[in-house]
Amino acid sequence: MENRILGLHHITAIAGNAQRNYNFYTKVLGLRLVKKTVNFDDPGTYHFYYGDETGSAGTILTFFPWEGIGQGNTGSGMATNIGYSVPEGSLDFWADRFKQFNVKHESADQRFGEQLLAFQDPDGLKFELIVSPAADNRKGWETKDVTADVATKGFHSITLTVKNATPTAKILTDIFGYKLLKQEGNRYRFITDAIENASVVDIIEAPNLAAGRGAAGTNHHVAFRVKDDNILMEFREKIASKGLGITPKIDRDYFFSLYFREPGGVLFELATDNPGFTTDEPLNELGTSLKLPKQYENSRKQIEEVLPVLQ
Ligand code: ZN
Protein backbone atom coordinates (compact mmCIF):
# COMPACT_ATOMS: atom_id res chain seq x y z
CA MET A 1 0.00 0.00 0.00
CA GLU A 2 2.72 2.42 1.02
CA ASN A 3 4.46 2.51 -2.33
CA ARG A 4 1.33 3.72 -4.12
CA ILE A 5 -0.08 7.10 -5.08
CA LEU A 6 -2.15 8.14 -2.06
CA GLY A 7 -4.72 10.36 -3.78
CA LEU A 8 -4.33 14.12 -3.94
CA HIS A 9 -1.61 15.96 -2.02
CA HIS A 10 -2.34 19.60 -2.90
CA ILE A 11 -3.81 21.76 -5.61
CA THR A 12 -2.23 25.06 -6.64
CA ALA A 13 -4.11 27.90 -8.29
CA ILE A 14 -3.54 31.50 -9.33
CA ALA A 15 -5.18 34.47 -7.67
CA GLY A 16 -5.13 38.23 -8.14
CA ASN A 17 -5.26 40.29 -4.97
CA ALA A 18 -3.61 38.60 -1.96
CA GLN A 19 -5.81 40.19 0.71
CA ARG A 20 -9.02 39.24 -1.08
CA ASN A 21 -7.76 35.67 -1.47
CA TYR A 22 -6.78 35.47 2.22
CA ASN A 23 -10.15 36.86 3.35
CA PHE A 24 -12.15 34.48 1.20
CA TYR A 25 -10.37 31.27 2.18
CA THR A 26 -9.84 31.93 5.88
CA LYS A 27 -13.05 33.82 6.63
CA VAL A 28 -15.76 32.78 4.16
CA LEU A 29 -14.62 29.21 3.52
CA GLY A 30 -13.12 28.79 7.00
CA LEU A 31 -9.83 27.12 6.08
CA ARG A 32 -6.66 27.46 8.11
CA LEU A 33 -3.74 29.35 6.61
CA VAL A 34 -1.10 26.74 7.40
CA LYS A 35 1.84 28.42 5.68
CA LYS A 36 2.61 31.91 4.51
CA THR A 37 5.69 31.82 2.32
CA VAL A 38 6.82 33.05 -1.10
CA ASN A 39 6.83 31.53 -4.55
CA PHE A 40 10.27 29.85 -4.51
CA ASP A 41 10.71 30.75 -8.20
CA ASP A 42 9.44 34.34 -7.76
CA PRO A 43 10.09 35.49 -4.16
CA GLY A 44 8.30 38.83 -4.67
CA THR A 45 5.03 36.86 -4.70
CA TYR A 46 3.34 35.16 -1.79
CA HIS A 47 2.60 31.47 -1.68
CA PHE A 48 -0.36 30.76 0.60
CA TYR A 49 -1.22 27.26 1.80
CA TYR A 50 -4.71 26.65 3.19
CA GLY A 51 -5.81 23.38 4.78
CA ASP A 52 -6.93 21.60 7.92
CA GLU A 53 -5.25 22.01 11.31
CA THR A 54 -1.95 20.38 10.30
CA GLY A 55 -2.11 20.93 6.56
CA SER A 56 -2.73 17.23 5.93
CA ALA A 57 -2.13 15.97 2.42
CA GLY A 58 -5.45 15.91 0.59
CA THR A 59 -6.62 19.16 2.24
CA ILE A 60 -4.04 21.64 0.95
CA LEU A 61 -5.07 24.34 -1.49
CA THR A 62 -2.31 26.76 -2.38
CA PHE A 63 -2.24 30.07 -4.23
CA PHE A 64 0.18 32.36 -5.96
CA PRO A 65 -1.52 35.77 -5.68
CA TRP A 66 -0.13 37.84 -8.54
CA GLU A 67 -1.50 41.37 -8.20
CA GLY A 68 -2.87 42.66 -11.51
CA ILE A 69 -2.28 39.42 -13.43
CA GLY A 70 -5.70 39.58 -15.09
CA GLN A 71 -8.32 36.94 -15.57
CA GLY A 72 -7.43 33.53 -16.98
CA ASN A 73 -9.71 31.32 -19.03
CA THR A 74 -10.81 27.93 -17.88
CA GLY A 75 -10.46 25.51 -20.76
CA SER A 76 -8.99 22.23 -21.88
CA GLY A 77 -5.59 21.05 -20.72
CA MET A 78 -6.12 22.11 -17.12
CA ALA A 79 -7.74 21.19 -13.85
CA THR A 80 -11.13 22.88 -14.06
CA ASN A 81 -12.93 22.16 -10.81
CA ILE A 82 -11.92 21.43 -7.23
CA GLY A 83 -14.24 19.23 -5.18
CA TYR A 84 -14.33 19.63 -1.39
CA SER A 85 -15.90 16.97 0.79
CA VAL A 86 -18.45 18.42 3.23
CA PRO A 87 -20.63 16.81 5.94
CA GLU A 88 -24.11 15.54 5.17
CA GLY A 89 -26.73 18.23 5.72
CA SER A 90 -24.29 21.15 5.34
CA LEU A 91 -25.24 22.39 1.87
CA ASP A 92 -28.05 24.67 3.16
CA PHE A 93 -25.57 26.32 5.51
CA TRP A 94 -23.19 26.90 2.60
CA ALA A 95 -25.87 28.22 0.25
CA ASP A 96 -26.91 30.74 2.94
CA ARG A 97 -23.30 31.68 3.61
CA PHE A 98 -22.60 32.21 -0.09
CA LYS A 99 -25.66 34.48 -0.32
CA GLN A 100 -24.53 36.43 2.72
CA PHE A 101 -21.04 37.03 1.30
CA ASN A 102 -22.12 37.53 -2.33
CA VAL A 103 -20.27 34.42 -3.46
CA LYS A 104 -21.21 33.34 -6.97
CA HIS A 105 -22.90 29.93 -6.65
CA GLU A 106 -25.47 27.66 -8.25
CA SER A 107 -28.41 25.70 -6.82
CA ALA A 108 -27.69 22.35 -5.22
CA ASP A 109 -27.35 19.55 -7.76
CA GLN A 110 -26.56 15.84 -7.96
CA ARG A 111 -24.01 13.77 -9.83
CA PHE A 112 -23.07 10.10 -9.50
CA GLY A 113 -25.58 9.92 -6.63
CA GLU A 114 -23.82 12.66 -4.65
CA GLN A 115 -25.30 16.03 -3.68
CA LEU A 116 -23.20 19.03 -4.59
CA LEU A 117 -23.14 22.81 -4.54
CA ALA A 118 -21.05 24.67 -7.12
CA PHE A 119 -19.42 28.02 -6.32
CA GLN A 120 -16.60 30.29 -7.44
CA ASP A 121 -13.97 32.16 -5.48
CA PRO A 122 -13.53 35.95 -6.01
CA ASP A 123 -11.17 35.31 -8.95
CA GLY A 124 -13.63 32.92 -10.62
CA LEU A 125 -11.89 29.67 -9.63
CA LYS A 126 -14.50 26.90 -9.76
CA PHE A 127 -15.38 24.56 -6.89
CA GLU A 128 -17.98 22.07 -5.78
CA LEU A 129 -18.88 21.16 -2.22
CA ILE A 130 -19.76 17.47 -2.39
CA VAL A 131 -21.58 15.28 0.11
CA SER A 132 -20.28 11.80 -0.45
CA PRO A 133 -22.19 8.76 0.81
CA ALA A 134 -18.77 7.21 1.55
CA ALA A 135 -17.55 7.86 5.09
CA ASP A 136 -15.20 10.80 5.49
CA ASN A 137 -13.82 10.81 9.01
CA ARG A 138 -11.44 13.68 8.46
CA LYS A 139 -12.01 16.59 10.83
CA GLY A 140 -12.33 19.98 9.21
CA TRP A 141 -10.70 23.09 10.63
CA GLU A 142 -13.14 24.99 12.84
CA THR A 143 -13.62 28.73 12.97
CA LYS A 144 -16.16 30.76 14.94
CA ASP A 145 -18.52 30.83 11.95
CA VAL A 146 -17.67 27.54 10.24
CA THR A 147 -17.92 24.78 12.83
CA ALA A 148 -16.92 21.14 12.34
CA ASP A 149 -20.49 20.00 11.53
CA VAL A 150 -20.38 22.05 8.30
CA ALA A 151 -16.65 22.60 7.67
CA THR A 152 -14.92 21.27 4.57
CA LYS A 153 -13.03 18.06 5.35
CA GLY A 154 -10.47 18.31 2.58
CA PHE A 155 -10.63 17.36 -1.07
CA HIS A 156 -13.20 15.02 -2.52
CA SER A 157 -11.87 15.19 -6.08
CA ILE A 158 -10.25 17.15 -8.83
CA THR A 159 -11.75 17.51 -12.31
CA LEU A 160 -9.43 17.63 -15.33
CA THR A 161 -10.72 18.79 -18.71
CA VAL A 162 -8.87 17.50 -21.76
CA LYS A 163 -9.49 17.13 -25.48
CA ASN A 164 -9.00 13.37 -25.43
CA ALA A 165 -9.58 11.43 -22.21
CA THR A 166 -7.61 8.29 -23.10
CA PRO A 167 -3.96 9.40 -22.74
CA THR A 168 -4.69 11.17 -19.43
CA ALA A 169 -6.68 8.18 -18.19
CA LYS A 170 -3.75 5.90 -18.98
CA ILE A 171 -1.50 7.92 -16.66
CA LEU A 172 -4.03 7.48 -13.88
CA THR A 173 -4.61 3.77 -14.46
CA ASP A 174 -1.24 2.51 -15.72
CA ILE A 175 1.08 4.57 -13.49
CA PHE A 176 -0.97 5.95 -10.59
CA GLY A 177 -3.07 2.83 -9.89
CA TYR A 178 -6.51 4.43 -10.35
CA LYS A 179 -9.51 2.54 -11.78
CA LEU A 180 -12.45 3.77 -13.84
CA LEU A 181 -15.42 3.83 -11.46
CA LYS A 182 -18.26 5.38 -13.47
CA GLN A 183 -19.06 7.34 -16.58
CA GLU A 184 -21.80 9.91 -17.11
CA GLY A 185 -21.82 11.52 -20.56
CA ASN A 186 -18.34 12.88 -21.24
CA ARG A 187 -17.31 12.67 -17.56
CA TYR A 188 -15.19 9.71 -16.47
CA ARG A 189 -14.67 9.12 -12.76
CA PHE A 190 -11.46 7.44 -11.60
CA ILE A 191 -10.71 6.35 -8.04
CA THR A 192 -7.86 4.78 -6.14
CA ASP A 193 -8.35 2.32 -3.29
CA ALA A 194 -4.92 3.20 -1.87
CA ILE A 195 -6.50 5.87 0.35
CA GLU A 196 -10.00 6.56 1.68
CA ASN A 197 -10.38 10.24 0.83
CA ALA A 198 -9.21 12.73 -1.78
CA SER A 199 -9.13 9.61 -3.94
CA VAL A 200 -11.23 10.70 -6.94
CA VAL A 201 -10.19 12.20 -10.27
CA ASP A 202 -12.84 13.12 -12.84
CA ILE A 203 -11.82 13.53 -16.47
CA ILE A 204 -14.09 15.54 -18.74
CA GLU A 205 -13.46 14.90 -22.41
CA ALA A 206 -14.14 18.12 -24.36
CA PRO A 207 -12.63 17.80 -27.85
CA ASN A 208 -14.00 21.15 -29.05
CA LEU A 209 -13.24 23.27 -25.99
CA ALA A 210 -10.50 25.88 -26.45
CA ALA A 211 -7.32 25.47 -24.45
CA GLY A 212 -7.38 27.21 -21.10
CA ARG A 213 -5.18 30.21 -20.37
CA GLY A 214 -3.51 30.20 -16.99
CA ALA A 215 -3.98 33.42 -15.00
CA ALA A 216 -6.19 34.51 -12.08
CA GLY A 217 -9.03 32.11 -11.36
CA THR A 218 -7.39 29.05 -12.91
CA ASN A 219 -5.57 26.05 -11.50
CA HIS A 220 -1.82 25.90 -11.99
CA HIS A 221 -1.12 22.25 -11.14
CA VAL A 222 -2.40 19.18 -9.33
CA ALA A 223 -0.12 17.37 -6.88
CA PHE A 224 -0.57 13.69 -6.07
CA ARG A 225 0.63 12.26 -2.79
CA VAL A 226 3.38 9.75 -2.10
CA LYS A 227 4.66 8.71 1.30
CA ASP A 228 8.31 9.72 1.04
CA ASP A 229 11.14 10.60 -1.32
CA ASN A 230 12.19 6.98 -1.98
CA ILE A 231 8.75 6.26 -3.40
CA LEU A 232 8.84 9.59 -5.19
CA MET A 233 11.95 8.45 -7.06
CA GLU A 234 10.39 5.05 -7.88
CA PHE A 235 7.58 6.94 -9.60
CA ARG A 236 10.09 9.15 -11.37
CA GLU A 237 11.50 6.02 -13.03
CA LYS A 238 8.05 4.77 -14.02
CA ILE A 239 7.03 8.11 -15.54
CA ALA A 240 10.33 8.65 -17.35
CA SER A 241 10.12 5.09 -18.75
CA LYS A 242 6.88 6.09 -20.55
CA GLY A 243 8.87 8.74 -22.40
CA LEU A 244 7.45 11.68 -20.47
CA GLY A 245 9.72 14.56 -19.48
CA ILE A 246 9.96 14.94 -15.72
CA THR A 247 11.94 17.26 -13.43
CA PRO A 248 14.56 16.11 -10.95
CA LYS A 249 13.53 15.94 -7.29
CA ILE A 250 12.92 19.47 -5.99
CA ASP A 251 13.00 20.46 -2.30
CA ARG A 252 9.91 22.57 -1.55
CA ASP A 253 10.86 22.81 2.16
CA TYR A 254 7.53 21.23 3.29
CA PHE A 255 7.66 18.33 0.82
CA PHE A 256 9.77 16.97 -2.02
CA SER A 257 8.39 17.27 -5.52
CA LEU A 258 8.58 16.15 -9.12
CA TYR A 259 6.70 17.80 -11.97
CA PHE A 260 5.63 16.49 -15.34
CA ARG A 261 3.04 17.49 -17.92
CA GLU A 262 0.58 14.70 -18.61
CA PRO A 263 -0.34 14.13 -22.28
CA GLY A 264 -3.62 16.08 -21.97
CA GLY A 265 -1.67 19.20 -20.98
CA VAL A 266 -2.30 19.32 -17.23
CA LEU A 267 0.76 19.98 -15.05
CA PHE A 268 1.04 17.15 -12.54
CA GLU A 269 3.26 17.08 -9.48
CA LEU A 270 4.08 14.25 -7.10
CA ALA A 271 4.68 15.42 -3.54
CA THR A 272 5.76 13.65 -0.35
CA ASP A 273 4.30 13.59 3.15
CA ASN A 274 7.72 14.44 4.59
CA PRO A 275 8.76 16.75 6.16
CA GLY A 276 5.39 18.55 6.53
CA PHE A 277 4.37 22.05 7.63
CA THR A 278 5.61 21.89 11.22
CA THR A 279 9.21 21.70 10.00
CA ASP A 280 9.77 25.44 10.55
CA GLU A 281 7.05 26.56 12.99
CA PRO A 282 5.03 24.84 15.74
CA LEU A 283 1.52 23.53 15.07
CA ASN A 284 -0.26 26.27 17.00
CA GLU A 285 1.60 28.98 15.09
CA LEU A 286 1.23 27.65 11.55
CA GLY A 287 0.73 30.42 9.01
CA THR A 288 1.22 33.29 11.44
CA SER A 289 4.57 34.55 10.19
CA LEU A 290 6.29 34.83 6.84
CA LYS A 291 8.50 31.80 6.26
CA LEU A 292 11.27 32.00 3.67
CA PRO A 293 13.39 29.24 2.19
CA LYS A 294 17.07 29.38 3.21
CA GLN A 295 18.20 30.90 -0.09
CA TYR A 296 16.04 34.01 0.50
CA GLU A 297 16.52 34.52 4.23
CA ASN A 298 19.31 37.07 3.58
CA SER A 299 16.90 39.11 1.44
CA ARG A 300 14.06 39.01 3.99
CA LYS A 301 13.94 42.78 4.42
CA GLN A 302 13.65 43.52 0.68
CA ILE A 303 11.10 40.71 0.20
CA GLU A 304 8.92 41.98 3.06
CA GLU A 305 8.96 45.44 1.53
CA VAL A 306 7.67 44.12 -1.79
CA LEU A 307 4.95 41.79 -0.47
CA PRO A 308 1.52 43.33 0.24
CA VAL A 309 0.75 43.67 3.95
CA LEU A 310 -2.11 41.39 5.04
CA GLN A 311 -4.69 42.83 7.42
ZN1 ZN B 1 2.68 22.15 -6.01
Ligands in the model, by name, code or SMILES, are: zinc ion
Indicate the radius of gyration in whole angstroms: 18 Å
- Strand content bin: 25-35%
Low-pLDDT sequence parts: none
Q: Name the CATH architecture.
A: Roll
Question: Which class do the helix and strand fractions yield?
Answer: alpha+beta
Fourth CATH level, the homologous superfamily: 2,3-Dihydroxybiphenyl 1,2-Dioxygenase, domain 1
Structural features, described:
This protein has 311 residues and is of the alpha+beta class. The chain has one domain (8-306): 2,3-Dihydroxybiphenyl 1,2-Dioxygenase, domain 1 (Roll), CATH 3.10.180.10. Helices cover 18% and strands 34% of the residues. The chain has 6 helices and 16 strands. The chain is globular. Zinc ion is lined by residues 10, 12, 221, 223, 269. The site of zinc ion has 5 residues, from β1 and β13.
List the helices and strands and how they pair.
Layout: E1 8-15, H1 18-28, E2 32-39, E3 42-51, E4 60-65, E5 78-85, H2 91-100, E6 109-111, E7 114-120, E8 126-131, E9 155-162, H3 165-175, E10 179-184, E11 187-191, E12 200-205, E13 219-226, H4 229-241, E14 250-251, E15 255-261, E16 267-275, H5 294-297, H6 300-306
Parallel strand pairs: 1-4, 5-8, 9-12, 13-16
Antiparallel strand pairs: 1-13, 2-3, 3-4, 5-9, 6-7, 7-8, 10-11, 11-12, 14-15, 15-16
The structure holds zinc ion (ZN).
Q: In summary, what is this structure?
A:
This protein has 311 residues and is of the alpha+beta class. It contains 6 helices and 16 strands.
